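Review session, final week

We close the course with one last complete record, chosen because it touches almost every idea we covered. It is non-specific serine/threonine protein kinase, a protein from Prunus dulcis with 236 residues. Go through it on your own first, then we will talk.
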Amino acid sequence: MKLYGFYLHHRHSFLVYEYLERDSLATTLSNDHEAKELGWSKMVNIVKDLANALSDMQHNCLPPIVHRDISSKNVLLDSEYEACVSDFGTAKFLNPESTNWTATVELAYTMEVTETCDGYSFGVVTLEIIIGRHPGDVFSSLSSGASPSSSSTSPAPEMSILDVLDQCISPPSKREAEEVVSLVKIAFASLNPSPQCRPTMEKVSQLLSSTQRLHLSKPLHMTTFGELLALDGFTT
């Protein structure tokens, strides 16, 4: 999100940003009509935009920029549904007692901030886009190392991937399905409790920008969540 200028006065301070016609990603996802209008192709592109922005912040800036508060509320959309990251610096004064479901395990317990913190939050937002709601239960299960619960937002290994996707949107086409399941795979890799095992945002951006995607040997409704997570590697 471009910053055009600022105004500083002893009584008032203003930041002037580019105008984005649409609301936040969180607001869009909470509106069934708007979510349906998005469709899977635009949702995939939103994830790509977010990955590219975080990669640029972490790998093309010196020193690297760590946002520390990436969430669907801080992703804004323009008229063409292109995503921009906003609210830089809002996490500067971190409240250790706050409940931020996009915060990483190491940030919550050790207050250690690294580039991988934003990568973890990227994984949470990606799942939120795909599921259509905040994946709090999924996050809890992964963080605790426990098996996913049977709630609607925590897909069990035997659950069909199609049952996990946002039900407000028509089932994806074959090509869209391969892109969506690739996002799920990358999202869970980004949610690895060990920061060293998470892919860098540069790697994520490269994967999403390439023609590589996971190949499904079975239709989406016949592919389980466990089978997806067991798949290894991408094909072109």
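Two points worth writing down before the exam:
The domain at 3-89+96-230 is CATH 1.10.510.10 (Transferase(Phosphotransferase); domain 1).
Residues 90-102, 141-154 have pLDDT under 50 and may be disordered.
Good luck, everyone.
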